[in-house]
Amino acid sequence: NIYKENNNIDLFCSNAGIACDDDINATPSHWEKVWKINMAQHTHAARKCIPKMIKKKSGWFLITASAAGLLSQIGSATYSTTKHAAVGFAEWLSITYGNLGVGVSVLCPQGVNTPMTKNMKNGGVAGIDGMLEADEVAKITLNDLQIGKFLITPHKSVRKYQKFKAENPEKWIVEMRKLNDKFGSLNK
Predict the structure, then answer these.
(1) What one-character-per-residue DSSP string does 30-49 give?
(2) What's the CA gap between 129 and 112, in Å, rounded?
(3) 79-88 pLDDT tens trace
(4) 98-111: per-residue pLDDT in tens?
(5) 136 CB-near residues (< 8 Å, 6+ apart)
(6) Tally of helices (H runs) and strands (E runs) in the chain
(7) pTM of the model
């Protein structure tokens, strides 16, 4: 437990993820594995951190989700679904604890050069708007945290896609189907 070594945490970064090509045939054990890593770990960390932050009336809880949590993920039902859940959990935390001195943000990048993306040619569909380096994402995130942003999207195109999706979900689905035809694992 981190609180055994530190009395206070100013910023807790809840950042873990696993991405796998999968579809409707993903087994229950596969779903459980991805759920535990991509979503449940945020709840465990929040359970430890948030009460202490409330008590001190300070602290920030950052959940790393993904642009897939706002939009979708071609080729992975489990990644898309669990990242949507992580975004929803971050929203709930902010709504519930934001007036009690606890800051909450959710980080939703697209393609980032990390070990998770190193075997994907040009970052796969996530790299469609270019890949960012992890230090670039960190710098953007710290800047956005300093001004109290809830939704942090290092790739500017994500907000544009999010707006398009909200304004015309049917057209959004049609466009995503085109990406699926190009990048989806069922089409390889």
Answers:
(1) HHHHHHIIIIIHHHHHHHHH
(2) 11
(3) 999 999 999 9
(4) 999 999 999 999 87
(5) 154
(6) 6, 6
(7) 0.88
